[in-house]
Amino acid sequence: MCIALVIPKGVRVDEELIERCSRYNQHGCGFAYVGADGKVVRKRWADSEFNKGLQHLMLAYSFALEKGASEHAMLMHFRYATAGPACKDNSHPFYVSDGAMVHNGHLFTPSSADKGKSDTRVFAEKYKDALNKAFVDANATELERTVGNYNKIAFLWNGGDVSVLNRDKWTTDPVTSVMFSTTPPPRRPPDTRINVRALETADMS
To answer: Which residues, including other chains, have CB under 8 Å from residue 101's CB and lie 6 or more apart?
Structure first.
């Protein structure tokens, strides 16, 4: 099962947590943040070599923070493929009308016409224009009823606001207030963790 994170303004998730989430969900990863122009920017990867994908995420996330991304909320997602293959196009976040979205759950089985696409990708592409902040906020209850309470969806809007569907089904860290769509993976013994600092000097070719 995938795991999605809603990261509050001013919070930086640590490398150990990112490594844990990515280690247990190796089919794609990405995050969304608000750029200097107030527009949402997404970054995503799906690498056949796990360490390379993790390295890209770590470096891009650190760079975004250096540019002030933590001045607004952020989204992060780690994919475990259940519908559609592991590829960048099926990795979250997905752009919608006024921002980007991440999803954890199962919306439907894509039709043969959408072969090779994940359910979230089909959903985002089909309803992209309708999924704007005004619509989602005004129709949150109906949207939750439609997708079911086992589907957890979060939107980051241009300007930095966040909308979360089925909020009561998410887990919130009592210290950082980071929201998790599923319980975070368990910690790994120190000697089995990836040395992220060493990855920064690794060959990315």
So the answer is: 75, 92, 93, 94, 120, 124, 131, 153, 154, 155, 156
Residue type, 53: G
What is the C-alpha separation between 135 and 172, in angstroms, rounded? 25
CB 2 within 8 Å of CB 78: yes
Contacts of range 89-92, beta carbons closer than 8 Å, 24 or more positions apart: 89/117, 89/121, 90/28, 90/46, 90/117, 90/118, 90/120, 90/121, 91/27, 91/28, 91/29, 91/30, 91/44, 91/45, 91/46, 92/2, 92/4, 92/28, 92/30, 92/44, 92/120
Three-class SS of residue 43? strand
Q: What is the pTM of this model?
A: 0.87
Per-residue pLDDT reduced to its tens digit, 106-135: 998 888 888 889 999 999 999 999 999 999
Mean pLDDT value of segment 1-19:
94
Cα–Cα dist 128/94, whole Å = 9
Per DSSP (E only), the strands in the chain are: 3-7, 29-34, 40-45, 74-78, 94-96, 99-104, 152-157, 162-165, 171-172, 179-180
